[in-house]
Amino acid sequence: MSIAEKKFNNKKIAILGLGIENVAFLKFLAKKKVKAQIIICDPADLKILKEKISEVKGLDFEFNNDKNCDENLKDFDIVSRAPGYPLFSKNLIKAKKVGVKITSAMKLFFEFCPSKNIIGVTGSKGKGTTSSLIYEVIKTAGKKVYLGGNIGIAPFEFIEKIKATDFVVLELSSFQLEDLDKSPKIAVVTNLFKEHLAPADPNNPNYHKTMATYWGAKANIFSHQKKGDYLVINEKLKNKICHSKSNAQANTTKLAYCTQDSNRLLAGARNDRVVFYSNSYLQSNLIGEHNKENIAAAVEVAKILKIKDEIVERAVKKFQGLPHRTEFVAEINGVQYFDDSFATVPEVSVIALKSFVDNKNIILLAGGADKGSNFKSFAKEIKKRVKYLILFKGRGTEKLFKELRSVNCKLKIVKVSNMKEAIKIAKKQAKNRDLVLLSTGCASFGCFKNYKDRGDQFKAEIQKLGA
Predict the structure, then answer these.
(1) pLDDT 10s digits, 319-330
(2) What is the pLDDT of residues 75-103, one digit of tens each?
(3) 357 sits in which H/E element
(4) 3-class SS at 62?
């Protein structure tokens, strides 16, 4: 009998939210011939739910797509929660109190993964680029490596291919990390901004009630590490990391994030190998200072893995970057167009604007839904670097507009409700050597499905201009 059968056979299991991670987990249970009673709790359309698991054969499962399908979680033995479902849900808390095992596909992956060579990458932004870079470096070195996580690939999709000597690189969001009780062998933290502090996504109601709980979730990437594991962390976070020697283990260091208003330790790690990184100046195709930091993180991981410098340089040089991250789209009639739709918080849009330090002829597409952000710095940067501002409608836009007035910004500003209208105005305003930048500093919901849809619509409209 397999370990999976021993753990799940004859159990009543709730699949809470049928996202890609839980779908892959169900496929894993089917391949392991697990005999359990499985209820899929998801208020989505039944036809869509059935399509998602059409490839899952041999499992005993039924659907509950009622609006309140999570009311009776206490009746289950195990609940596998999708990252979008909040841990602070009253129904989940009730279930936990009566002994229901609350878990997630990512948590279970750490338990079942055949290899301990897991490299986890988190941060408010940059984690996708950094994890992809690390993956490319390891692959270029000729080692067997898999990439998954928040980047859009559920790790249970490839778990059965993994051998003990293989490497696994995981991009990990705060929602995937918040219930982990194991940490990767190498943990990478790129940065930390105010993010996910409000339920901006109607399809993902999860959020963090405070900055402290946000960091607490992120810190799980290193807080369960053991002696001999590595934490690779941005030097900019150095003044936010508290160090204190543990009396019980004098040779280890306790690490925690210190909030500005308190030195309270929010999370600790028993780890004696902490590496801080800043910028790398290796030749690359990536734009902006933030990408120099992302490259530096990958370089430090390569050093830990003893990968030769020339291999790292080759991998970094050929890496083209990920879509929607300060991505060059086209140059039409002397006007350059860049897609930075992944900038869903103002701090990242500030970085994008600074990436074009020599260009003050920027037409900026910004605004949208709010994620609990502060827009003051963004407003100041817009005043300094932007010549024309196009804002998508949303709560974030209203907050940004107030900050623009507070810094006495006298830019020409127009509000739009769709991408077609935005590009039409941008084209009319743009002159030779101008730059049109989609970097909203806000979530996309309202006008768009998500940041990918927003970026794809931007590219589609630019293609029409070129045609």
Answers:
(1) 999 999 999 999
(2) 999 999 999 899 999 999 999 999 999 99
(3) none
(4) strand
Question: Among residues 316, 351, 311, 305, which one has the least CA distance to residue 190?
Answer: 351
As a whole number of angstroms, the distance between CA 452 and CA 227 comes to 39
DSSP-assigned letter for residue 223: H
CA distance 418 to 6: 52
Confirm if 383 and 409 have CB atoms less than 8 A apart.
Answer: yes
Comparison of pLDDT for 276 and 360, the residue scoring more = 276
Instruction: Calculate the dihedral angle through the C-alpha atoms of 267, 268, 271, 277, rounding to the nearest 10 degrees.
Output: 40
- Residue among 19, 5, 101 at smallest CA distance from 58: 5
- Residues with Cβ < 8 Å from 93, sequence gap 6 or more? none
Backbone angles phi, psi at 190, to 5 degrees: -85, -45
d(CA 265, CA 256): 5
Cα 179 from chain centroid? Answer: 16
Q: CA quadruple 319, 323, 327, 330: dihedral positive or negative?
A: positive
| Sheet of strand 118-122: strand arrangement | 145-149, 167-171, 118-122, 186-189, 230-234, 274-277
- For residue 193, give both structure tokens: 């901004």
The CA-CA-CA angle for residues 281, 286, 292, to 5°, reads 35
The residue type at 325: R
What is the rounded distance in angstroms from the CA atom of residue 348 to the CA atom of residue 462? 23
Sign of CA dihedral 244, 246, 250, 254: negative
Determine what percent of the chain is predicted with pLDDT higher than 70: 91
CB 56 within 8 A of CB 23: yes
Cα-based distances in Å from 440 to 60, 174, 193, 387, 434: 45, 22, 16, 15, 18
Global pTM reads: 0.90
Cβ(455)–Cβ(341) below 8 Å: yes
Helices (H), ranges, 113-245: 127-140, 174-177, 211-223
**379-130-446 Cα angle (round to 5):** 45
Q: Which two tokens stand for residue 142?
A: 């000729």
Residues 6+ apart with CB under 8 A from 140: 311, 312, 314, 315
Q: Indicate the range of 180-189, 251-260, 374-383 predicted with least confidence.
A: 251-260
Q: Quote the strand ranges of 123-258, DSSP E.
A: 145-149, 167-171, 186-189, 230-234, 241-245, 253-257
Residue 131 amino acid letter: S
